[in-house]
Amino acid sequence: MAAVESSQKNILDLINTAAEGSHEAFEQLLLLQNKIICYKIRTKISNREDVEDIAQEVALRIFMRIDSLKNPEYFGSWLNTMIVRECLKHFNSNNHMTYLEDLSETEDFETLLVENDTDCLPEECLEKREAQNELKRAVDKFSTNVRKMLHLHYNDGLKYREIADIMNMPVGTVCTHLFRTKKRLLKEFSSTSSGIL
């Protein structure tokens, strides 16, 4: 416990020192965060070269903007938002309009549907898996924008304001779409959705 607190304090110190302009602190911070950055990018992009390119872009953005981070405790959220934005920029700049086009094949999307439950009985696991597959098919029927919003909110943990900024739309629109989508899914799966939504 004390080691974790010490580690977090060291990271906060590195963030503050890097924000003050220390290149050495920035390099140490980047070394500590590089695996996390690459992992988060890989959950969205499969091409290794693209992952490396985007990781470099994220590192550059951190370097250029770390002094604008007002509260170092929110570094993780700030970093996650940068990663998502860079991934979206990558897809948009390469005319790949398929970002999360097929969420049913995205491994991370399963966390939206059901927690990995290793304690369940085989019959329960099978029932959950079947319900999960039904839900995936239902989600695939939504527009690309709605699926993006679902992914950004439930998988990336972004708040409505952050999603609105990334997708260049009003916060109210994001709230409305997510509310209506969840309502439709709950209505459709009310009899089978125990623990899924």
Arithmetic mean of pLDDT = 76
Q: Would you count the extended β strands for me? A: 0
Which structural category fits the helices and strands? mainly alpha
- Major sheet description: none
Low-pLDDT segments, ≥5 res: 95-118
CATH class of the largest domain: Mainly Alpha
The total domain count is: 2
Proportion of strand residues: under 5%
- Helical content stands at 55-70%
Q: In DSSP terms, counting alpha (H) and pi (I) runs of 4 or more, how many helices?
A: 9
Cα-based radius of gyration, to the nearest Å: 19 Å
Report the order of strands and helices: HHHHHHHHH
* Second rung of CATH, namely the architecture of the largest domain: Orthogonal Bundle
Cα end-to-end separation: 33 Å
Please specify the SSE layout and strand pairing.
Blueprint: H1 2-19, H2 23-42, H3 48-65, H4 75-93, H5 110-113, H6 122-140, H7 144-155, H8 160-167, H9 171-188
Briefly summarize what is shown.
This protein is mainly alpha-helical and about 200 residues long. It folds into two domains: about 1-95, Rna Polymerase Sigma Factor, Chain: A; about 105-190, Winged helix-like DNA-binding domain superfamily/Winged helix DNA-binding domain (Arc Repressor Mutant, subunit A, Orthogonal Bundle), CATH 1.10.10. It has helices spanning about 1-20, 25-40, 50-65, 75-95, 110-115, 120-140, 145-155, 160-165, 170-190.
